[in-house]
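Example for tutorial group B:
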């Protein structure tokens, strides 16, 4: 998706008036976005910029580049942003940050949702990132374990859980380690299934059916997000209770999700961009970790699966879709 199409899609947001405290017109900054998914998902970031006084065509230009989950395209897209001499690059996930960091050591990079910034070697530490990378993490210790625990609480008799991950997504590896630890204590066996491209789903789905998985855990990934309707439809047709790493899957008909808010992170990423444009060094800005995780449950899907969600779990849900 090119910048013009992106801006057109968010025209209503970008055309909003400046906030009262907006900065005076001056230099026009160029913000690069190295994305995996285009469309409305980036609305919170644009709104965050607007609230801070930045408006496309007035004091910022947005150069939007999306791989559309074809990660092999990222290096060329990152190189293009560097050639455009953007003032800052916003990257939503670990693989994007890695590629952006390989493309430039001088242009500031703001992570909008890293899975494991320290373990992945993206920053030196959370408190003092160093280098040209800072931003926000979407994950926290034992997140995958908590997701598996909630899934087991929903389906107490499940003994085999399929785990869907994209091996090219670095965050998935740390999540898998957490899931394996939790699986031992919960006495469930994990069936690890990998999909790098949409055309691999058919064999993955067949493997789930062949091994008779009793539930499904889907790790966060840009390609999975683009294919969320296909994944949730498969889970429904296969009568598989599923836990997802993004709430967008629940909106698409999935059973449940437990995750930090991607929209919140994107809005907060705008604050990091603002600080950098005002002179802050990215290496001096601490990495933010999520402090709140949302449990979202789709009761309509539960009923279709013949599941009765425990009242204790419903009471803990942040949102119940009926």
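The residue assignment follows.
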């Amino acid at each position: 998706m090119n910048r013009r199409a992106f801006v057109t899609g968010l025209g209503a947001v970008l055309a909003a008036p400046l906030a009262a405290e907006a900065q005076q017109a001056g230099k026009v900054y160029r913000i690069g976005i190295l994305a995996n998914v285009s469309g409305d998902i980036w609305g919170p970031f644009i709104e965050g910029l607007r609230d801070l006084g930045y408006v496309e065509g007035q004091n910022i230009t947005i150069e939007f580049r999306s791989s559309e989950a074809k990660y092999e395209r990222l290096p060329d897209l990152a190189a293009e942003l560097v050639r455009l001499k953007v003032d800052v690059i916003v990257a939503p996930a670990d693989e994007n940050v890695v590629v952006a960091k390989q493309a430039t050591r001088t242009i500031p990079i703001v992570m909008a949702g890293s899975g494991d910034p320290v373990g992945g070697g993206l920053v030196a530490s959370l408190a003092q990132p160093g280098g040209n990378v800072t931003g926000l993490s979407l994950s926290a210790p034992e997140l995958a374990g908590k997701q598996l625990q909630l899934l087991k609480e929903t389906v107490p008799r499940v003994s085999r859980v399929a785990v869907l991950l994209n091996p090219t997504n670095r965050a998935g590896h740390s999540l898998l380690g957490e899931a394996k630890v939790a699986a031992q204590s919960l006495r469930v066996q994990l069936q690890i299934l990998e999909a790098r491209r949409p055309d691999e789903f058919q064999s993955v789905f067949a493997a789930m059916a062949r091994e008779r998985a009793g539930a499904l855990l889907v790790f966060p990934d840009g390609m999975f997000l683009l294919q969320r309707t296909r994944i949730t439809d498969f889970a429904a047709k296969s009568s598989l209770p599923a836990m997802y790493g993004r709430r967008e899957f629940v909106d698409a008909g999935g059973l449940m999700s437990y995750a930090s808010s991607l929209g919140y992170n994107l809005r907060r990423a705008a604050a990091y961009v603002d600080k950098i444009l005002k002179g802050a060094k990215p290496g001096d800005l601490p990495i933010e970790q999520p402090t709140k995780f949302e449990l979202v449950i789709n009761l309509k899907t539960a009923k279709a699966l013949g599941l009765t969600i425990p009242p204790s779990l419903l009471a803990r849900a942040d949102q119940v879709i009926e």
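The first strand starts at residue 29 and ends at 35. Compare this with the pattern of hydrophobic and polar residues in the output above.
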